[in-house]
Amino acid sequence: MLSLILPSLDLIGGMVLWLGMKDRASSPRRMCRLYKLVCLFLLAFMGSIQTRTSVTAKALYPYEATSANQLSFAEGDKLGIVDASDPDWWKAEVGGVILFVPASYVEFTEGQ
pTM of the prediction? Predict the structure, then answer.
């Protein structure tokens, strides 16, 4: 995740410095403080973003979705489960989209 933050810090810092050059009244010390403040804000913001991790489950039976927020799958399909807290409907991620799957139709694979 740090590799995603560092380019953002460079971009934001560059914008701060460019704005400071436009405003000739800004001292280098003031621009440095502003840059540090923006970087700290960005790091705090990025730290508050939670990343989803998934565990793999195997479909025991085929399932045909009955609504747009459900996932259709075939028997034997591997699914990335991101939330199994509900006993009836689990959340699976497909292409960055979270969809519901019936918990009774899938089981976690070995080693999960």
Answer: 0.52
